[in-house]
Design brief:
Layout: H1 3-15, H2 18-25, H3 29-43, E1 48-51, E2 54-57, H4 59-86, E3 91-98, H5 99-104, H6 106-116, E4 120-127, H7 129-137, E5 143-147, E6 156-171, H8 184-187, E7 192-195, H9 200-211, E8 219-222, H10 225-233, E9 238-242, H11 243-252, E10 255-257, E11 265-274, H12 281-293
Parallel strand pairs: 3-4, 3-5, 7-8, 7-9
Antiparallel strand pairs: 1-2, 5-11, 6-9, 6-10, 6-11
């Protein structure tokens, strides 16, 4: 049985909803549906019943949910017991992250790791991608999560962690919000708000604009994604941000995606460390934990 598929099924079973499970796991709703379907095919029995927009567990699904809880709880206990053999009963781990994964991804997972290893001290430093690269270079952080657009720098080694999607958003009542695709000519007339230079989000967007041969929109530059979201929600600007940064606001009706024709920007967040850094058992364990939590096995 594929444990990654089982973990996704458990998220659906606990939330009762594919979209909520996708938010919890930081993956797309279609990906959740595909993985649950693969698990059903592997087991040869239906686990879920769809009645309108409501998802119900079959008898087999209820049985699997209860046992999956027990299985993952037992796995956590085994990991804690094995930690003493890996020398991970205590220690310090200095982590770095660019703004998006540091704000909207890692906070969901660091408490889980801390609970498994309560004597371990975790330190998380946030900054834009270039700033955290510099922290890796001068050994101020041991391991970082960064956007890949500016990677790999020659002094860094990286591993894929998770994919991300950039979306154009506006206020929920913005004239361009809806399902009908709009053109760049429609968008360019509105002011924008941008992340600062050195931000991976900004760099990816700027390269897209340049690659399409488009005029760069006018706008305001901010160093905070949260400040961007507030400005956008007030109706004063449009902006390009990570979907993981706005999925809650979109679901709550505070912000809305602007369906821009030809705009399909994806990037990958990667684990990065200095090539000369000697990995400790704690660093290796955290990498393994994060990759497993995000499905990159």
């Amino acid at each position: 049985m594929n444990l990654h598929h089982l973990k996704i099924f458990l998220a659906v079973a606990e939330t009762g909803n594919f979209s909520k499970a996708a938010e919890t796991l930081h993956i797309s709703q279609p990906a959740v549906s595909v993985q649950v379907k693969k698990l059903e095919e592997e087991l040869g029995i239906p686990l879920l019943e769809h009645m309108g927009k409501t998802v119900h567990l079959t008898q087999a699904g209820l049985f699997l949910k209860d046992n999956a809880h027990h299985l993952f709880r037992q796995a956590d206990e085994i990991e804690e017991d094995l930690a003493q053999f890996r020398g991970i009963t205590s220690g310090n781990l200095r982590l770095g992250a660019s703004t998006t994964p540091g704000t909207y991804l890692l906070p969901f997972h660091l408490p889980v790791f801390q609970a498994r290893f309560p004597k371990v001290n975790l330190f998380l430093q946030l900054g834009n991608t270039r700033a955290i690269q510099a922290e890796l270079a001068n050994n101020s952080v041991d391991l970082a999560v960064l956007g890949e657009d500016q990677l790999p720098a020659p002094e860094l080694i990286t591993e894929k962690l998770v994919d991300d999607e950039l979306v154009l958003i506006g206020a929920a009542n913005h004239p361009l919000a809806g399902t009908a695709p709009v053109k760049w000519e429609d968008v360019i007339h509105y002011p924008f708000v941008f992340r600062e230079g050195g931000s991976n989000t900004r760099d990816v967007f700027d390269k897209w604009v340049q690659g399409q041969g488009l005029h760069r929109p006018r706008g305001t530059e901010l160093t905070s994604t949260e400040a961007m979201k507030r400005m956008i929600a007030s109706g004063q600007a449009l902006g390009v941000v990570s979907f993981m940064a706005v999925n809650w606001e979109i679901a709550a009706g505070h912000l809305a995606p602007i369906p821009l024709a030809g705009f399909n920007l994806r990037r990958t967040f990667r684990l990065a460390q200095h090539k000369d850094k000697k990995p400790t058992p704690l660093l290796l364990e955290f990498k393994r934990f994060l990759q497993e939590a995000l499905g990159q096995n």
